[in-house]
Amino acid sequence: MDEKETVKTGKKKIDKVKYLITGIIFLVISLAFMWNDGILEKESVKEVMGSISNGFFITGGLFAGVGALSFIGSKGTYDTLSYGVSKIGIHHLIPGIPREDAESFYDYKMAKDKKGRVWFPNLFFIGLAGILLSVVFVVLYSFL
Description:
Helix 1 (about 5-35) packs across helix 5 and helix 2 (about 45-75) runs antiparallel to helix 5. The protein starts with a helix and ends with a helix. The longest helix is centred in the N-terminal third of the chain and has 34 residues, at about 5-35. The relative contact order is 0.16. It folds into two domains: about 1-75 and about 120-144, no CATH class; about 75-115, no CATH class. The protein is mainly alpha-helical. The protein has five helices and no strands.
């Protein structure tokens, strides 16, 4: 077996684990929303479908939103804001923090690019799957 194949196989395994863990967390949060909505006290199947749809939609929206924001951030969209807060604004907001010699914005951006930028596709795609599940349960809700 080639070393490159081992690295690829290991990465795929890690990705599967990330998606599995994200999916489990998604289900736990969805179940918490359904529990809070009183799914066990619902009297009709239609009300249960509505509660399931609400739980999946809320959690799916949160996960997909965080995943989308991480994608946007991975392109450097928030660099100006983070530079301003970390290098300039924090000294005015919290007194007593020693002021470091601020590097230029260009150096800051190049350092972030060199360090690498990541996004969380597992959050985005699990969130989209949750929204699609919600749509399925809304359709079932409307036909019952």
